[in-house]
Every structure is written in C-alpha cells, then in structure tokens.
Design brief:
The complex is a heterodimer of chains A (328) and B (313).
Chain A: E1 2-11, E2 14-24, E3 29-33, H1 40-48, E4 55-60, H2 71-74, E5 75-78, H3 90-100, H4 106-114, H5 130-142, E6 148-152, H6 160-175, E7 179-184, H7 187-191, E8 196-201, E9 204-210, H8 211-218, E10 222-226, H9 230-239, E11 243-246, E12 252-255, H10 259-268, E13 275-279, H11 283-291
Parallel strand pairs in A: 3-7, 3-8, 5-6, 6-7
Antiparallel strand pairs in A: 1-2, 1-4, 8-9, 10-12, 10-13, 11-12
Chain B: E1 5-6, E2 9-10, H1 23-35, H2 38-68, H3 78-108, H4 110-117, H5 121-155, E3 168-177, E4 189-198, H6 200-228, H7 231-248, H8 254-261, H9 267-272, H10 286-310
Helix pairs in contact in B: 1-5, 2-3, 2-5, 3-4, 3-5, 3-6, 3-7, 5-6, 6-7, 6-10
Classes of the chains: A alpha/beta (328), B mainly alpha (313).
C-alpha cells in the first residue's frame, strides 16, 4: 500500500510532478501510464527516496521507505536495469545488495535460478544483453521477498519471450497478495497485465480507475451505421440529442447513443439499416485521447493537425520527434 | 508470503526479520563491492609496484653512488629515500582508490540500486568510509613496510641503511680536503665529523606515519568524490590539491610562501618521513603537520557526507 499525497517535484524551473495524489493497493497490478516525460520515473524515485519531493508526502503502509527496518523486505524496485557496476559479476552484485539487509547468502543463488541467470552468475554484467540485465534487476527486487514491487518500463527492449515472462511474473506476484506497481508509456503493455491504472500527463493525474472502467470509457464511443436513408437517420438521432456525421463512403458515425438505441429509433421510423456496428476505440486510442493535451513533445507527423493538442503556447517551440504523440 | 513459485523455481523462506538493517550489513556489502571489481586489484598492484619498485631502484642507486662519492653519506636519510616514491606517487594512486570507491557508483548508476536497497544514506556513507579506511590503511601499512625493507636491503653493505630493530648512525657532517699529492692528483680525502643516531623508534614512526598519511589522502579523495560525483573530476582535484598546489605556490617569494604551505594537505608528507637531522624548518613537526592533513580530510569527508544525504541521488 503506497500513498502519494500532493507530490510536487521540480528540477530547476521545470515542474516534473505537480500536486500528484494517488494510492496503490496490494493484490493487484497497478499500471502507471503516461507519455514520456510525464513524471512517472520521478514519482517512483520520490517513492524510493532517491529524489526528495519539494512538496507532499509519500508513505508506504504508514511509514517512509527509509524508516523500514529491512527496506528490501518491504519494496523491491527496478528503475534502470543498467544501474549496476558492469565490472561486477551477477552473483556479487546481488550479494552486495543482500548483505545491506542481512539477507542470507543462499537467497542470491535462488533468485538467480528464478530469473534463469544461474549459468552466467559468475560473469561480469557488462557483457549482459538488455534482457539479461532486466532479469538481473528483477532478481535484485525479489531478494528480500518484498511486499511490494515496482518496475519502471520493465519490458523496454525485451524480446517477446521476455515480455511474456515479465507479465506472468507480475501477475504471479500480485496473486500472492503483493503490491505491484509498473510504469509504461504504452497502453498496449498494460492491456493484458494491469488491473488498475494510474494515468498521468505533465506531472498531473489524468485518471485513476480500474482497467474495466478504462475499457468502458474507451469502448462504445460511437456507433457506425449504413443506410439508404442517411439524411433521415441523421435527423432522427440528432433530434434525440446524439451527434452524427457522415464520411466519404457513406458510413454515418453516431455519438452519444448506444447501438440498441440507434437500431430501435431506426425501426420506429421505418429506416432500413445495412450496418449497425459498435465502434470500439482501442485502449491505445483512448489513452492517446486522454493524454493528448499532456504530451511533452510532439512530432509534426502527418495526420495530426497542428494545434489539436491544446498545449500552452509557451511550449510549442519544442518539436522533437521522439514520442508517443506522433500518431502511433 | 514466505515462498513463491514462478517458472517452477521455489524460493526458500527468509528468516523472520528481527532487529534492523544497519552499519554491519552495509560494511559487509561495501567490502564485497570493493573486492568484486578488478579495478581495486589493479590499483593496489600499481601502488605496490610503483612504491616498492622505486624504493628498490633508489636503494641500488644510492649504494652505487656512495661507492664513488662516499661524502654523500653525511646526513643521508635512508628511510625517507625508501618511502619517497610511496608518499609522492603512491598518494596519487591511493587517491584513485579513494575517489572511485564512491564515484564509480555514480558513473555506473549503481548508486541508485544501492540506495534503493539501503535508503538510510548516512549509514551507507559511513559504511563506505569505514571500509575504505580499513582497506587503505592495511594496504598502505603493508606497502610502506615492504618499500622500507626492500629499499634498505638494496642499500645494505653501503653502511647507511636504517633498521627497525636497532639504532643506526650516519655521519652528521663531512669535511673534504685535497688529496696528498695536491688538487687533481686523486680523490679528495673525506673526513666525517659527528654522528646522527637514528633510533629504531624514529624509523618506525616514519614508516607507519607515511602509511597513515597516504591513508588520509585516500579519504581526501573520497570526500572530493562524494562532492564532485565524477571520477575524473575527483581524481583531478585530488591531484591538484596534493601535488599541483605546492608547485604553483613556488612562484611566491621564499620568505613567506612556507607560511602558506604548512596549511596545505601535502605538507605532512615532507616531514613525516624524515629520520635524520631536523626537518624543514618552515613546516611544523611531523604530527602537527599530519593533523593539518587530517583536518582537510575531515572537512572534505564531512562536506561530502552532507551532500550525499541532501542531494537527489
């Protein structure tokens, strides 16, 4: 159980996290979503005490992280898989971490076996692939059998097998009653893993809801209809308060009304329908829509009309082609 | 939550948590860190090779020089001649160990992993300090004694070598007179006047004191490392402080530059290894001068510790 209250963190003049409040419950996977630069890593660093908040409080089951007798038994965190001394062997890396919390030495061998690195335990980690480094980082988080695990973009750079492995691991850890908090800038990663979502953009909270609620918000946004009596249908649904638009190939998109309502109305008016479809916006689209205003840098990609993001004028000069805002 | 199975692997239950993770675990961890990277061994090997190797070369050189120029025996400080490479060059190598014991954590990013495992930063810093001090003290003492013994062995037979087990003497002054057949007809006559007695205690103080001095230099570099958090920057500033500062100050007038130099951290190295005659009259004696170095180390280590706790990692 992590409680973040009014967290604010500035780096110089830049506000990385702005009055952020949310809670993370045990027994489920909580996804931490936001575009690059939204403040996810900063929030995690503040939770761990690596960075000091300018304002706000963070407590883990009622205490600050550093006040726990054995911090590694409380939280296992992997923020950066490459944050190891590359000249040290995997075994010694884990051993020096275990020793700080008086954890038994045998634990090192066990977590190495768990993540499948036993064969390279004596090898220096600077020869490791990114996937192996991620596994080593995860081994470190599990050393203390923690009540809570925290991963920052854990699947970045992993092959499909590695991604599946991490997903299953997170689900297993949550099923064991642990708190699992995992960040990503891609909705698709969360789709199959997270039970709960915290969405932030530009350091501010955008959504704090279950995955189900998020799916509900995303789907059924529109109903697509084809009919020979297009004008009549548009008139009918508009009269009932829905909005409708027609595209080039004759499909009408109705918003603000369910497929059932549209079908019943058409039936009552004797309008023949050739198609009646729920348009399910993908979770990715819903996420993009939610965070569009808060994307840090936009690329001038085709298909994204300038100015749709509603960003403050002061930041429009930045057009680095590096992110999610570029119309994935 | 005692056991967990993933991918068919079972983790054994951890012993129940009693007490609190503290300095003892951090010291074990920091020792593991130091012994598990190659750079530690390379640097220690370099320290010993340079210090002992130059002591041996200097010893043979002095022995051969005395053979043809016996007058140079007067006032010869055999102990200092064996230790000079250790405290002049060795201090630079030990500075690398001191600085890197903290800056390597920043250059690799390991510091974030370390602080996540043990978020009580004061404990981490103190643990690092204790391990560095212990290891460099042992390494310095060993190096100092080996350099002394090897250097003296190389000089043995020339009648000037010092000893840790009994007093020795060297001539205090030398009087040179022309040979019987007049100037140029042969080597001059060498007559010595008075003797300096070098007690074994004085020699022991020089050997141990030099090791202590070099250890404190490692701590100065450690403090600089904690402040600067960058390996090259920390080593450069340590060299600047211990080496370059005293060279730059040579441009100042002789009559008062020593009044400044006695407050420099490297001054102790010049007096602590002296066993013959009076040391540099412009500097304080060995231990007060050593205290100056210790104060430098204390201030830098203290400032480094403050910043280590206060800054974002």
């Amino acid at each position: 159980m992590i409680e973040v209250r009014g967290l604010t963190k500035r780096y110089g003049a830049k506000v990385a996290v702005d009055d952020l409040t949310f809670g993370i419950e045990p027994g489920r996977v909580t996804g931490f979503l936001g575009p690059n630069g939204a403040g996810k890593t900063t929030t995690m660093r503040c939770i761990l005490g690596l960075d000091y908040p300018d304002k706000g409080t963070i407590v883990i089951s009622g205490k600050a992280f550093r006040d726990y007798a054995y911090p590694m038994r409380e939280v296992g965190a992997l923020l950066d898989a490459k944050a190891v001394h590359g000249g040290r062997s995997a075994y010694n890396h884990l051993l020096c971490l275990a020793q700080t919390n008086n954890l038994p030495r045998r634990r090192v061998g066990e977590v190495l076996e768990l993540v499948g690195l036993t064969e390279v335990a004596k090898k220096r980690s600077n020869g490791f692939s990114l996937g192996m480094s991620q596994r080593l980082g995860i081994a470190a988080t599990l050393l203390g059998d923690p009540k809570m695990v925290m991963f920052d973009e854990p699947v970045n750079g992993l092959d499909p097998e590695g991604i599946l492995w991490i997903r299953n691991l997170m689900k297993t850890l949550a099923a064991e009653g642990r708190t699992v908090f995992v960040s990503s800038h891609l909705m698709s990663e969360m789709e199959n893993t997270a039970d709960h979502l915290i969405v932030i953009g530009r350091g501010k909270l955008i959504a704090d809801c279950t995955m189900k609620e998020f799916v509900a918000r995303a789907s059924g946004a529109a109903v697509r209809v084809r009919t020979p009596s297009a004008e009549q249908l548009i008139r009918t649904v508009s009269a009932k308060g829905a909005t409708a638009s027609i595209d080039d190939d004759g499909a009408i998109e109705v918003r603000g009304m369910s497929a059932e309502q549209v079908g019943d109305l058409a039936f009552g008016e004797n309008i023949r329908l050739h198609e009646l479809t729920m348009v399910r916006a993908s979770l990715e689209e819903a996420f993009m829509e939610l965070t569009a205003d808060s994307v840090e840098y936009h690329a001038d990609a085709p298909g994204r009309p300038a100015g749709t993001s509603g960003r403050p004028a002061g930041t429009t000069g930045q057009h680095a082609g590096t992110t999610i805002g570029s119309g994935v | 939550m005692a056991t967990m199975t993933t991918a068919g692997v079972k983790l054994s239950a951890l012993p129940s948590a009693t007490g609190r993770a503290g300095l003892r675990g951090v010291i074990a961890s920091e020792f593991t860190k130091l012994r598990s990277v190659r750079s530690t061994y390379w640097t220690i090997a370099a320290l010993i090779i340079v210090s002992v190797g130059i002591a041996a070369i200097a010893g043979f050189g002095i022995a051969s020089n005395l053979h043809s120029n016996p007058q140079n025996k007067a006032g010869l400080d055999a102990t200092q001649d064996s230790l000079i490479a250790f405290f002049e060059l060795g201090q630079l190598i030990i500075a690398v160990i001191g600085a890197m014991s903290i800056t390597s954590e920043y250059s690799t990013g390991m510091i974030r992993t370390s602080m996540t495992a043990m978020p009580r930063r004061g404990t981490v810093y103190l643990g690092k300090l204790i391990v560095l001090t212990s290891v460099t003290l042992v390494v310095s003492l060993v190096t100092s004694f080996i350099a002394f013994f090897v250097g003296q062995a190389a000089m043995s037979g020339s009648g000037v070598s010092a000893s840790l087990f009994h007093s020795t003497t060297v001539p205090a002054n030398v009087i040179m007179s022309p040979p019987a057949g007049g100037p140029g007809s042969g080597p001059p006559n060498v007559t010595f006047q008075g003797t300096d007695v070098i007690s074994s205690g004085t020699v022991l103080t020089a050997v141990v004191g030099t090791a202590l001095f070099v250890t404190v230099v490692a701590l100065i570099a450690f403090g600089l490392g904690a402040i600067i958090r960058h390996t090259a920057g920390a080593i450069t500033s340590a060299i600047g402080l211990m080496f370059v500062l005293s060279i730059i100050i040579q441009i100042l007038p002789e009559n008062w530059r020593w009044d400044i130099m006695r407050f420099f951290p490297d001054a102790a190295g010049r007096v602590i290894s002296v066993t013959v005659g009076s040391s540099n009259p412009h500097l304080w004696s060995a231990w007060p001068q050593f205290l100056v170095t210790v104060i430098w180390a204390a201030v830098l280590v203290g400032a480094g510790g403050y910043l280590f706790r206060k800054r974002d990692a």
